[in-house]
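A favour between colleagues. Tell me how you read the following sequence-structure pair.

===
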Amino acid sequence: MPLYLTDLLARPDLNLSVTGDPAPGLLDRTIDAATVSDLLHPGEWLQGGELLMTIGLLLPMEPAACRAYVADVAAGGAAALALGLGHGLPYQAAPQPLVDAAQEAGLPLLTVPDEVPFIAVTKAVFEARAHEERQVLQRAFATQRRLTAAATDNGLRPMLEEWTAATGVGAAVLDPLGRLLASGGPDAESVLDSARDLIDRVASRGLRGSAASTAGGQQLEVQPLGARRLRGLLLLSGGPDASARAVVPGLVSLLSLELERRHLMDEPERRRRSALLSELLAEPEGGQERAAGRAQDILASVGLATDRVRGVVVEAPPESAQEAAADLALAIPGGLVRVTEGGLVEAVVAEELDVRDVLGRFTPGCPAGLGPPAAPEAVRASLRQAAGLLGLSRSSGAPVEARESQASRLLLELGDRRTLLGYADAVLSPLDLADNGEELIATLAAWLETGGSWDTTSRRLGVHRHTVRNRLDKAMTLTGRRLDDADDRFDLWLATRIRRGGRV
């Protein structure tokens, strides 16, 4: 336990005395160290929490000088001031100006008798601090032994409950997506809400560091768990004391070992689900209805109740493809993930899953394609489209989704801007030279974007549909193009899209 000023005053071998009438609570200050100085301005040499001892050799006893001296000591963070008295020293009793100054400043003033050298006080303080540190280590070792014993129960909860019982600090283990796996108390859910930002911040950094904050007056701390890859997160709620803080690394190690053990034990289940994915992607037999029923049965067997799924393909480094697949199998509901013979990671996910967030967490920087939503029995086509987008993903540095508008934007962004603008100018320059060229181009772009709908284009532009037709007839005459020709329509669509900067 800490060393208080009252503990020093109670020691008969030191025979320290307190002067004046200290305010309540002043003598309950903790003493972190003891030091000696006869400087007139010792404050700048203090770190805080010291018992500063002096014989007052250079201190003039005018009230103003005493007030300035005491103010300097207090500003340096000293817990108390002690004046040495005795034969051959400047003072045989505490001078009243110094007593008054200490009383005004709220700084306890002690006296050290002639028979007690300052070194005796210093040794007493450091012996007490050493005893306190030994107690901290003993409590830490005891807690560590309790946690190690709890770890033999093969579970997260026993360790967390033992930790909370020993330290009074709440603890919970989450999976890499922040979902609760186990806790040491009943209030874990309420703590999760206030710690969500902190959890996301640590999870996004993998094993690279922890973080702490204060929310709602409660101290929160998140530590990553795992050996080589992030397997989970430890959330601590409450401020650990010195002995508990010393045990945190041990707790992290034990929890990491338990999560790694779970990861290895889950390997048969991951293989089973990989086999189910292969079965889902196999060529259907027995007609469309039978294939649909079979696909629904496979999804139901892994707890995935959905009518629309999509394929996801990730190009992970060969040496980490299996680990990436295992991470995705944990994060994706249903866990339908496999590694192909070519080393690609394939997954089937529900349409509503925010798969970009999952990929950002577990396969950051890896090329990835996201196929379009499809019925479960037709997910093979979604996977093929996802695989076809890997080249675009490598170039863009981000996952690419199989949507026409997004693919068009990517193609425009990847092309040389000067070349694209030259292409657009070549197609649209006859309209640029017309008196109402901007109006003609805007009408053409709107008509193409609405899929050739005259009514929708007229409503969007706020003009009669006959005006739209007249403008487009004029545009076709100027450009020499035909709206009923697929190649011409594509050239016109691409040129107007380039003029808009590739925006969709």
About this structure: Residues 5-116 form a domain with the Udp-n-acetylmuramoylalanyl-d-glutamate--2,6- Diaminopimelate Ligase; Chain: A, domain 1 fold (CATH 3.40.1390.20).
